[in-house]
Request: fold
Amino acid sequence: DVKVTQSSRYLVKRTGEKVFLECVQDMDHENMFWYRQDPGLGLRLIYFSYDVKMKEKGDIPEGYSVSREKKERFSLILESASTNQTSMYLCASGGYGEGQPQHFGDGTRLSIL
Amino acid sequence: DQQVKQNSPSLSVQEGRISILNCDYTNSMFDYFLWYKKYPAEGPTFLISISSIKDKNEDGRFTVFLNKSAKHLSLHIVPSQPGDSAVYFCAAKGSSNTGKLIFGQGTTLQVKP
Reply:
């Protein structure tokens, strides 16, 4: 079974802090993704990566950056956290090839105070 | 511009009956459609997918129907069980190999015993 592990289930940070969310997958997938989930808005793509050191902006990249130094690890960085970044953050990997699904971690509930 | 829409935020059905979840899309270039289920405090899990060249795919109690002319797909769950109570997301994939998905807003299904 594919395992996608997010480093924290719950996180509380303060406005202006730099926040790191870590994600590790064990299936040697090329593609990795970061989403945020908000009520009534579904899952919105922040950034994705299709190879080590490669990244592309998703639909809502503002205020975020990412890092992919190793194939198994994809980090999401909030450069200067703001209250409107309070959300559920979901990491996924996979999806390469016809119909192949993405596999998700359990999410990080991030609160910015 | 919401390319994938789930217009019903919630649905309630009786145990043993059929649940029908709907999804509309606007982009005729999508080549795969997927359904995910999400329980609270967990990541989404892949349920079933369908290629744009098919009109039906079945897996146990779950069947997905695709109507390309109407740009509409639906997920049928028969018979519905209380354990099916969750948020259901439909997602669409474009023809690139990045595996990038576009998600709908989600529909919360409640199956009453």
Remarks:
- The radius of gyration of chain A is 13 Å.
- Chain A touches chain B at residues 4, 9, 31, 33, 35, 40-45, 48, 50, 56, 58, 90, 92, 94-107, 109 (CB under 8 Å).
- The first strand of chain A starts at residue 4 and ends at 6.
- Chain A has a mean pLDDT of 93.
